[in-house]
């Protein structure tokens, strides 16, 4: 089967302007449409054996030997997953690549595949990561790439040049270890009921509007509700925009 290159939704291509665009209802609709088109797919970061997503079955350490496990107290033939293991598997299914290890793995793979170190428009979904990678030796020209677990790095069909107010960045300045806490805060504070999609957008610095670089965490759902928060590159919360119905 030929690889299908994913083109990110319009709001994620210019994260520096997303916050301003969201003020207009039309832009909000664009973000939501881009968001709800994706079904969160599992990214297996679990250790050991587990059942397929949605089956509700999993095994805990020691199940294959018939030994009693401290977390479940079950005997041979009656093992069940521990609450801790179940929560870990659920988090892996929900967030996938949208995690510190997932983001680092994707960036490392793209850097190795392309030999490039400067990027812009990084967008991270649980199931894939897309980015513009600057052509070596150029400050303006870029190619697009997508990383997916299993299939690796794929070059996109879109190439172009940055506009005058756009700047690429070295992703080393971002603290990806803060992403789980930002996601937890988003789930708690953004008032998006039963989110069906979560994603991170890199916000580049914009000298024209005085916008600093940062990270934006979005939550959306099937009812076109959108909420987002903004943090600086080190994960310090800057602004919250909960869904307002």
Shape, please? Answer: globular
Distance linking N and C termini: 43 Å
Total tally of structural domains: 1
Major sheet description: 9 strands, antiparallel
Number of DSSP helical runs = 6
Protein structure class: alpha+beta
> What is the number of strand segments?
9
Order of secondary-structure elements: HHHHHEEEEEHEEEE
Task: Return residue spans where pLDDT drops below 50 for at least 5 consecutive residues.
Answer: 1-79
Taking all residues together, what is the mean pLDDT? Answer: 74
Strand content: 15-25%
* Structural Rg: 20 Å
Q: Percentage of helical residues?
A: 25-40%
Multimerization state: single chain
Structure characterization notes:
This protein is of the alpha+beta class and 245 residues long. The protein has one domain (10-40, 96-241). The chain has 6 helices and 9 strands, in the order αααααβββββαββββ. It has helices at residues 10-13, 15-21, 25-36, 83-95, 100-114, 179-189; strands at 118-124, 129-134, 141-148, 152-161, 169-170, 197-203, 214-220, 226-231, 237-241. The longest helix has 15 residues, at 100-114. The radius of gyration is 20 Å and the shape is globular.
């Amino acid at each position: 089967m030929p690889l299908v290159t994913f083109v990110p939704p319009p709001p994620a291509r210019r994260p520096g302007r997303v916050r301003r665009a969201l003020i207009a209802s039309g832009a909000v609709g664009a973000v939501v449409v881009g968001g709800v088109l994706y079904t969160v797919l599992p990214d297996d970061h679990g250790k050991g054996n587990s059942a397929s997503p949605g089956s509700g079955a999993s095994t805990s350490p020691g199940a294959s030997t018939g030994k009693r496990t401290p977390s479940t107290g079950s005997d041979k033939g009656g093992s069940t997953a521990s609450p801790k293991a179940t929560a870990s598997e659920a988090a892996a299914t929900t967030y996938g690549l949208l995690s510190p290890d997932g983001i680092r793995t994707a960036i490392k793979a793209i850097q190795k595949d392309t030999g490039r170190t400067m990027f812009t428009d990084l967008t991270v979904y649980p199931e894939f990561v897309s980015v513009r990678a600057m052509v070596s030796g150029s400050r303006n020209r870029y190619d697009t790439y997508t990383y997916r677990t299993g299939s690796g790095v794929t070059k996109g069909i879109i190439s172009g040049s940055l506009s005058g107010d756009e700047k690429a960045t070295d992703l080393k300045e971002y603290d990806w270890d803060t992403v789980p806490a930002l996601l937890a805060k988003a789930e708690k504070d953004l008032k998006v009921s039963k989110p069906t999609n979560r994603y991170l957008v890199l916000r580049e610095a914009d000298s024209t509007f005085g916008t600093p670089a940062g990270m934006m965490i979005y939550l959306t759902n099937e009812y076109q509700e959108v909420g987002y928060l903004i943090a600086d590159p080190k994960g310090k919360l800057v602004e919250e925009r909960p869904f307002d119905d």
